[in-house]
């Protein structure tokens, strides 16, 4: 496979090689494609969640957005963060 890059991306690949992070151009491209795959999967998951949320809203399976609900979401988020940080020790 041959890939043509615009000058700015070609220069970026050269910078990555010069920094010593990669041994050749193929490694740079493979790493970029891996990151693109991760980003694409994250986007796919987000779209699936949005679709479920829209379906729930259309079916009436939602709660009114209140200050209490927002505070509950914030507290649950903080608790998850505390658990993650405790597990990282």
What does this structure look like?
The protein has 89 residues and is mostly helical. The chain has helices spanning 7-18, 25-58, 67-88. It starts with 6 loop residues before the first helix and ends with a helix.
Structural domains: how many: 1
User: Which band does the percent of strand residues land in?
Assistant: under 5%
Number of strands: 0
Uncertain ranges:
none
The helical percent reads over 70%
What's this entry about, in short?
It is built from three helices and no strands.
Task: Using brief descriptors, characterize the structure shown.
mainly alpha, 89 residues, 3 helices, elongated, 76% helix
Helices, strands, pairings?
Layout: H1 7-18, H2 25-58, H3 67-88
